[in-house]
Amino acid sequence: MSNAIYQQQVDEFMAKIAAKNPGELEFHQAVREVAESLIPYIEENPRYKEAKILERIAEPERVILFRVPWLDDKGNVQINRGFRIEMNSAIGPYKGGLRFHPTVNLGILKFLAFEQVFKNSLTTLPMGGGKGGSDFDPKGKSDNEVMRFTQSFMTELFRHIGPNTDVPAGDIGVGGREIGFLFGQYKRLRNEFTGVLTGKGIEWGGSLIRPEATGYGCTYFAEEMLKTRGDSLKGKTVAISGSGNVAQYACEKVTQMGGKVVTLSDSAGYIYDPNGIDAEKLAYVMHLKNVKRGRISEYAAKYGVEYVEGKRPWGVKCDVAMPNATQNEVSEEDAKTLVANGCFVVSEGANMPSTPEAIEVYQANRILYGPGKAANAGGVATSGLEMSQNSLRLNWTREEVDARLHQIMKDIHTTCVKYGRREDGTIDYVKGANIGGFVKVADAMMAQGLV
Ligand code: NDP
Ligand code: 2IT
Asked: What CA dihedral angle connects 235, 265, 208 and 407, to 10 degrees?
């Protein structure tokens, strides 16, 4: 069948998705990208078409939306909205993070839950897909306010989750502190100590390497892509956006592997340090962001480097870009600038950080582009390893978990190559990840009847 006919099928499918999910633009964006890869594949494998697997996979199994009332430090009543999207449980319990950010809405969480289904399948571990969160903004809140909000959030969420049902974790605005409060409240309400959340503290059921896993995994994935061209991260200049969990540990691993990280950012701007953000400077960033909860501009003041307010770091000359902040943070213009400046690797720590137009620029220029659902799967994979350790009631060493994470990232890369090789020999990692993630879930759904 010709590309024009496939495109027409994608447009018809997307018209139905848009009508059924009005205004959920990020969800439409994520589904369209997957449909573009899958529709030609499904035409070649008509059993999926007859079973309407694509239509089923784009419909959440369950959406939970709830009120979260809490009292701020002044005694004022505050109301936020809580969500959990239970997207797909064909291959395991729902699994995916919680995001606390003022931009959170149904469409954003549905896009994240949809991506999570394919990502979790790619990890090779038995995890379904889910995502949740709230429009609560942790910025500027005291620890006590975060605790009161989080306890109220869990007071509703607890009845919907469980170690064999749905296992949340962190995402933007949800780190070790929030997971601690969430776990404490779940334990009180259920009177049981179980692996209901991942990203737990190491003393109470967490896994070594889980905090590092997304950033490390994204770096391992970049290295695997480079290997296909006989190259490596050694000596490469790397631009990273964000300065949170994913960005910090990507910076650490890139530096350990011989690369030089020259940028970090937050929502207010970016810093450019041409000498590289070494281990000592990174320790400063970690304290600044995780303990002081300050702004990245303070780095520029401390080390006397450039701070660019209100901009993203994609104008800086680099070999490798790692967008590790948020969705749609690399525009078509940014992608053109990156490529013009010699960037030839993009490994996405964030979920859907590149716009569809930016992806077209990467693909047309045949650069090594690892989409989030493949490149950032190390985080959830290590959550899966935390679940395994909780079930075994055993703890693995750092080396053991890191070795498993590394192997999983290599396996994901191999899957992308298997399903994504182009006729010219290069690899379309978008197609590879989408089809590679789809097959296992689709076959499980078929085997389980009309579910
Ligand atoms: P954190 O909350 O730890 O850090 C987020 C970083 O991104 C901060 O520097 C933040 O800046 C910046 N940021 C957030 N929103 C925006 C925005 N709208 N515009 C510009 N900058 C923004 O989150 P994580 O590091 O955990 O998550 C980063 C990305 O990685 C997300 O896309 C997440 O979905 C994805 N991801 C995370 C995984 C994990 O294990 N944590 C796993 C897989 C993917 P500021 O502080 O100013 O808000
Ligand atoms: O987007 C993601 O994969 C995450 N935020 C991690 C999810 C998890 O369950 O560890």
From this structure: -50
Indicate whether this model's pTM tops 0.90: yes
Q: What's the pLDDT tens digit per position in 31-59?
A: 999 999 999 999 999 999 999 999 999 99
Q: Which atom of ligand 2 is nearest to the CA of 95?
A: 9
Q: Which of 95, 110, 119, 131 is catalytic?
A: 131
Q: Which amino acid residue places its CA nearest to atom 4 of ligand 2? A: 97
338 near 314, Cβ under 8 Å? yes
Token pair 């896009």 is found at 111
Ligand minimally distant from the alpha carbon of residue 295: 1
- Give me ligand 1 centre to Cα 373, in Å: 15
Only one residue has tokens 């495109």, namely 7
Residue linked to tokens 């909780």: 390
131 noted as active-site residue:
yes
The second-level CATH assignment, the architecture, of 213-375 is 3-Layer(aba) Sandwich (3.40)
Query: Could you tell me which CATH class the domain 62-193 is placed in?
Result: alpha beta
User: What region, left, alpha or beta, does residue 352 occupy, with left being phi > 0 and alpha being psi -120 to 50 degrees?
Assistant: left
